[in-house]
Amino acid sequence: MADEQQELRRINWQEVFSFTRIFRCHQMARHPSKLLLATAAIVLVFVGGWVMDQVWAVGGGYAYPGEIWDYYTQTSMEFEQEKDQWVEDRLDEAARLLADAQRERRRLSSFQGEIPSGELRDAIREKVNEDPDAMGEEPKSRTEILSEAEEQDRNWSQLLSQASRTFQDELKNIDDVLDAAPDAARERIEEIEDDEDRQEAREQLSEHLALAQRAIAVRRLEFRGRVQQIRGVGIFSSFLDWQADCVSKAIAAVRYRNITGGLAQYRQTRDARDFGPMTLGPTQGTQDTPVPPDDMGFLYYVLLMWQGVAWLYSEHWVFALLLSLLTMAVVALFGGAVNRIAALHFARDERLSITQSLRFSCSKFFSFFTAPLIPLAVIVVLGLLLAVGGLFINIPVVGEILGGLLFVLPLVGGFVIAFLLVGLLAGAPLMYPTIAVEGSDSFDAISRSFSYIFNRPWRAIFYGLVALVYGVLTYLFVRLFAYLLLLVTHAFVGLGVFASAPSLHPRADKLDVLWTRPTFDSLFGSFNWAAMSGAQQIGAFLIGVWVFLVAAVVAAYLLTFAASSTTVIYFLLRRKVDATDLDDVYVEEPEDLPPPPEETPAEQPETDEDQTGESEQQPEDTQPPSSDTNEGDENDSQTN
User: Fold this and answer.
1) Are 22 and 466 in contact (CB under 8 A)?
2) Which of 16, 136, 311, 329 allows an S-S link to 105, with CB 3.0 to 4.6 Å?
3) Is 344 exposed, middle or buried (0-12, 13-18, 19+ CB in 10 A)?
4) Are residues 266 and 405 in the same domain?
5) Would residue 2 count as lying in a domain?
6) Cα(248)–Cα(390) distance, rounded to whole angstroms?
């Protein structure tokens, strides 16, 4: 047929819509090796930050509750005044707490106030008033404690330690009173003549005994809260709580398709902080989590995360520097390994082991570690040069004129800084995939990431949005699965727990004390340490370790999905810019092995028959072909 017809049998949608390859990232991110490496990274950073908190606590390095929020909303002057006031009030508040603890130790007023009127409360009051001196020495006023502290040169920390010891004495007095008061109350109840009233009093006594146990937990919680308000919160704990809350709210914003909401209010807050007082109303100064309205978008919470980083570097720069170095080292080692597994998984569908991936990341550790630091270092150096150049403007007359003539040089420096900032913020996610895919160094990672971003900016933005939306959806599914796992574990284990826990709630059991019921928004949850005994605290800690690992795996999924998606995006951008195949990935060559020795055949002795046969066949082999054969060949060729 002259016109051949072609039929379209199948469409390769991945070639037509290349962004659909990003949908493989969910499967790639669930790879056990990636999750294990990411979980190990999270645990190491968490443990390192906790250790740093303990070290800084020795020198009094704390952040007051709500410090990050105040840093974001208040002006610099207001924030410094708030912080200085908290430091100055420490001694006075510690003295107030000590005075209250001494009074409570002797009278148990707060404890008695939690118990309703009845036989138990009357019996407790009688036991307390029976021998006041046995309850402790006469309490001192706050003024007397401050005067003694000034005379003895005692600081707030020492007063806080004394208040804690006094509180332990108060708990001991409560235990002693509760050992004797119920028997006295029962004796009174047995004296009641009416049977119904006596039975009702017995039931009331059982309820009040449970409330007494809960009153002890409430008293512990109250005292612990006041101690934390005076001492402060660990720097890493404050920073981690802030960042975790911002991440949670940012994911919720994407879930409700809110990306840019709240940017105007953020700009208004920043302008008010930099140029004037806040006019947005009061803030919650007792929390470390942001409290904006619920209609804030994804970018708003990303900016709040940067505010947390800014607070850390401006207020605790030594802590921030050490924590950053620790985090970058851990991410370079484990993050590089995750990206290497993702690169081979996507390009060649190969499963790399943890040992092999860590071996690769160790060999490229310096490149992974320095790739994002080199542009940042150049920005800092150029900024310092511009600052030095600004010093010449201070010279009267000559400096002003010369500075105006040569102002083109600072503009060039500013252009370079702006170029590096845009490339660093947008291209930093592609640096690790570059090293993992190409097996190159940090300079190649910087060059390729900048090139791909500036050559295909809209495509890179589109790929990033697809990965963001898809990542949030898959993360919510993973989080839902983990929530169901913890929920059914709590429910079925609780079926076998019959021991009650009146210190928490009249209807609570011991499992509710050791491990509170998880929620979708809080997988790890909170622990009722104030309602636990010593052995229960050990058991709750061990349970918390396992629950923390489950929550850490869920958080690790975010990291593995980010590594997988950025790796896939790097492959797609590389194909568009450099026309490189998607299966082109660096593979380490095996070590050169020495060639095997050549095997020489064993020499066989020649026999007389072999020699005779060779001599007889040699003339036949050397004879020319016969003419008949040649004629036959010629005829065949002519016929053909």
Assistant:
1) yes
2) 136
3) buried
4) no
5) no
6) 43
**Chain segment 231-279, per-residue pLDDT in tens:** 999 999 999 999 988 988 888 888 788 888 888 888 888 777 765 543 3
Contact 121, 184 (CB under 8 A): no
Residue 458 lies in domain: 17-61+318-587
| Cα distance between residue 510 and residue 209, in whole Å | 17
SS (H, E, C) 188-254: HHHCCCCHHHHHHHHHHHHHHHHHHHHHHHHHHHHHHHHHHHHHCECHHHHHHHHHHHHHHHHHHHH
Model confidence over 364-407: pLDDT tens digits? Answer: 999 999 999 999 999 999 999 988 888 877 777 777 788 788 88
> For residue 269, what are the CA distances in angstroms to 73, 261, 292, 307?
6, 14, 11, 12
CA 316 to chain centre: 19
Q: Are 145 and 99 in contact (CB under 8 A)?
A: yes
Same domain? For 173 and 213 the reply is yes
pTM of the model as a whole:
0.77
Question: Which residues on neighbouring strands pair with residue 63, listed in sequence order?
Answer: 233
**Mean pLDDT for the chain overall:** 82
d(CA 42, CA 562): 14
Phi/psi for 523 (5° steps) reads -70, -45
What distances in angstroms separate CA 508 from CA 5, 181, 194, 532, one per listed residue? 77, 24, 32, 13
d(CA 442, CA 366): 8
